[in-house]
Amino acid sequence: MILFKKSVSHTGDDNQFTVKGLQEGKEYEFRVAAANKAGAGKWSQTEQAIEARAPDCAPKALGFYGSIKEINIKSGETLKISIPFQASPKPDITWLKVHNYKRYEFN
């Protein structure tokens, strides 16, 4: 059973409201009821919980371009490259290697 508690009250005629203080990654359910001098309406019904997370943001590499110089390694050695990025939600990542102007995809 889900218990709802009144957490905010907003007076006005707009149909949008920003809820502050949510914890990222936690799920929340919201219900809304409107009221006027004739009384309160029924509470809205939720279809499913909503996960609090940052707004959608296309992936973007941070501090990568211009910082990579030529790297020489011997055949069979391991190369580890760490590239910081910003994105929401977390994207699937595909690495591409260019060799003799041909692209090879590997995960």
Quick gist of this model?
Helix content is 0%, strand content 25%. The protein has strands at residues 27-28, 35-36, 39-40, 50-51, 57-61, 85-88, 95-99, 102-106.
Task: Tell me what you see in this structure.
The structure is a single chain. The model has no long low-confidence stretch (mean pLDDT 79). Strands 1-4 form a two-stranded antiparallel ribbon. Strands 2-3 form a two-stranded antiparallel ribbon. It has a two-stranded antiparallel ribbon with strand order 5-6. 0% of the residues lie in helices and 25% in strands. The two termini are 43 Å apart. With 107 residues, the protein is mainly beta. It has a domain at 57-106.
Question: Layout of helices and strands, plus pairs?
Answer:
Blueprint: E1 27-28, E2 35-36, E3 39-40, E4 50-51, E5 57-61, E6 85-88, E7 95-99, E8 102-106
Antiparallel strand pairs: 1-4, 2-3, 5-6, 7-8
Percent strand = 25-35%
> How widely separated are the two ends?
43 Å
**Which H/E pattern describes the elements?**
EEEEEEEE
Mean pLDDT value? 79
| Tally of DSSP helical segments | 0
Instruction: Report the major sheet.
Output: 2 strands, antiparallel
Q: What global shape is seen?
A: rod-shaped
DSSP, total strands: 8
Unreliable segments of 5+ consecutive residues? none
Helicity level, as a percent range? under 10%
Lateral arrangement of strands in the main beta sheet: 1-4
Q: In terms of structural class, how would the helical and strand content be classed?
A: mainly beta
| Rg over CA atoms | 24 Å
